[in-house]
């Protein structure tokens, strides 16, 4: 169905939001959608958000329709929101969940044009190792299959401002 919704003659820029749980990925992707639709942010978010360590987005959330910007009318945008790293999920095996997230983030890097990483002031070692491993896989694929490495954008959440 995606093929029917998107114009194959116009480039598609895929924006992926990834990073630690509770750092604003879902809020950010919702605000991007508000921007595209030209509505105020007084509306409810397009999908569930929270600022706790409990995972809200599970796996991958996709807005499956082309978004056209007034600034870039000859480009279609597609937005993906990924499950946060380090989240708490009842009944899940932490090691198994970590491996699944690594795979998910690797896929996110492969499909994205712009890969955004949302983190706190001091990212934890696991998250950095996960991103390093995923980038290594993408780099290997780039050499073998001639795929492009996405642009990387880092968002650092200032927790001091958030707590005041």
What do these coordinates show?
The chain has 164 residues and is an alpha/beta fold. Helix content is 37%, strand content 23%. It contains five helices and five strands, in the order αβαββαβαβα. The protein has helices at 2-5, 25-37, 94-111, 125-145, 159-163; strands spanning 12-19, 60-68, 76-82, 114-120, 151-157. A five-stranded mixed beta sheet has the order 2-3-1-4-5, with helices on both faces. A hairpin with a 7-residue loop joins strand 2 (60-68) and strand 3. The radius of gyration is 16 Å and the shape is globular. It starts with a helix and ends with a helix.
Low-confidence stretches: none
Question: Rg, please?
Answer: 16 Å
The proportion of strand residues reads 15-25%
Mean pLDDT across every amino acid position: 76
CA-CA gap between termini: 45 Å
Number of helices: 5
List SSEs in N-to-C order. HEHEEHEHEH
Task: Provide tags for this entry.
single chain, 164 residues, alpha/beta, 5-stranded mixed beta sheet, 5 helices, 5 strands, 37% helix, globular
Give a nutshell description of this structure.
This protein is α/β, with parallel strands linked by helices and 164 residues long. It is 37% helix and 23% strand.
């Amino acid at each position: 169905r995606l093929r029917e919704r998107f114009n194959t003659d116009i480039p598609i820029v895929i924006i992926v939001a990834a990073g630690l749980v509770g750092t604003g990925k879902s809020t950010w992707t919702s605000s991007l959608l508000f921007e595209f639709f030209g509505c105020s942010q007084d509306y409810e978010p397009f999908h569930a958000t929270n600022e706790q360590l409990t995972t809200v987005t599970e796996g991958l959330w996709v807005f499956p329709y082309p978004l056209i910007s007034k600034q870039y009318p000859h480009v279609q945008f597609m937005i993906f929101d990924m499950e946060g790293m380090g989240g708490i999920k009842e009944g899940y095996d932490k090691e198994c969940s970590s491996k699944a997230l690594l795979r998910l983030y690797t896929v996110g890097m492969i499909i994205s044009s712009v890969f955004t990483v949302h983190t706190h002031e001091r990212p934890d070692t696991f998250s950095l190792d996960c991103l390093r491993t995923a980038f290594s896989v993408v780099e290997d694929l780039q050499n073998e299959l001639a795929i492009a490495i996405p642009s990387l954008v880092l968002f650092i959440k200032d927790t001091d401002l958030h707590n005041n």
